[in-house]
Amino acid sequence: MNSSQVPFRPLVKKSILLSSSRFLTTAATQAACNSDEPSFLQSVENYYDHAASLSDVQPHTLAHLRAVDSVLRVTFPIEVENGKYEVIEGYRAQHSRHRLPVKGGIRFSEEVDLQEVEALASLMTYKCAVVDVPFGGAKGGIKIDPTKYTVEQLERITRRYTMELCQKKFIGPGLDVPAPDVGTGPREMAWIMDTYAQFNVGDVNAAGCVTGKPLSMGGVRGRNEATGLGVYYGIREFLGYREVQKKTGVSDKLENTTVVIQGFGNVGYHAAKFFEENGAKIVGVGERDCAIYDRKGLNVENLYEYHRANKTFRGYSESAQIIDQPSKILETECDILIPAALERQIGLRNVSNIKAKIIGEAANGPLTPAAHEILEKAGKVVIPDLLLNAGGVTVSYFEWLKNLSHVRFGRMNKKWDERARSKVLALVEENAGRPLTEAERKAIVHGAEEADLVYSGLEDTMIQACQETRQTAELKNVDYRTAAYINAIQKIAAVYEGSGMLFMH
């Protein structure tokens, strides 16, 4: 039996703080997973245990790395209307502080609970290590449906939650740096930053307490599309590998490659956009109420604008097929399937219907361990979440660096670079015996703007992480998910063991 077929088995028993297993109550999850399949937290732990058994890392280090360092649960009352109050529940988990600050998003969702934030915090630790972002992993959330509250109520909830984080030392540029996640965005990050600044007057680095902020408040250009762009860069890199081409029959030329995306939020939309711009054909998109499929291809921008205006795909096109059960979009014909919604969307109930040749996990944990194993055995290529959707945390890292340096990327060197290139260009024109056109000159002389540098840094980061994952997969004869986990475990273990782990011995 190949090491890639070694069954998942726990190395270290760990108490779970909630007695009942947590399962998302979405219709898609119920349709996809059997009742005895592991929860999201258990899935992450199973993946970790399988990789840990192949990592050659000391058992005591593996046990330390597996456990969540700290968790915070807070409740606070909020006045909603006419003197009525509602008690809001919030969480923050810090999985590993081997590097500080820890990093991870804050989500607003009725599905938030302690198991979810523990699982996501663990995944963030491994994700940061895979792409060499020097952060530990964390995650937070507030158990609300944000659509049921006014903007003023959401602001009060966000600011009160931030105050709790401040009081408990669960936020700060050198401690714990949140970011957007499901149900949150730049607006909420601005509220968090402002609240932190009010409680930390004189902290010159206060803007670095959170990332994903609006540009006017210290955000970085390119952050909004970072996760979707990272998904594109990662899949493009894997399509260039000979073994992937041989296994799937999909060419590295994206022309006429068919792509289906589940989830049309920030990540799904930008992933679709970048694939379309580079020649791929987006044939299917799934959202909450329904999905849309058109073998001839969909216009991403038109579809996005229509969905924003109408909150549905229904009525968009006479030629496109509307699928009433949105999870069925996962089972349609395509070359590349990108689940970009929630966890546990492909399980034992629907995995046999997956027709895609490549599954790129833009969401966190969209496959259960059993489904992953079945897809691998069926000859599919699964590109794992902790590698593929790390674009967001990579560009968050760039934003954090920008906030600490207090200068926009490119500001110090853009004109210097342009002058140097102009001099070189003058020599080229002299030797060529003809002047270049104005368009040619601008293309060559143009100095890098902040977005150019962010895109370049993200592309290089994703390429390096994909190549490391590929090398480990070949060396250990394992799938890409296991390889990515092994790389993460070994990098983190090197920090723990190199520091001696205070009071461990």
Automatic annotation (TrEMBL):
The entry's protein name is: Glutamate dehydrogenase
Residues annotated to bind substrate = 103, 127, 396
Which organism is this entry from? Rhizopus delemar (strain RA 99-880 / ATCC MYA-4621 / FGSC 9543 / NRRL 43880)
- What subcellular locations does the record give? Mitochondrion
Q: Which family does it belong to?
A: Belongs to the Glu/Leu/Phe/Val dehydrogenases family.
Outline the extent of the Glutamate/phenylalanine/leucine/valine/L-tryptophan dehydrogenase C-terminal domain: 220-500
PANTHER family named among the record's database cross-references: GLUTAMATE DEHYDROGENASE, GLUTAMATE DEHYDROGENASE 1, MITOCHONDRIAL
Q: Which residues bind NAD(+)?
A: 227, 266
Asked if the Swiss-Prot or TrEMBL record annotates the protein with the keyword NAD, the reply is: yes
Where on the tree of life does the source sit, at the highest rank? Answer: Eukaryota
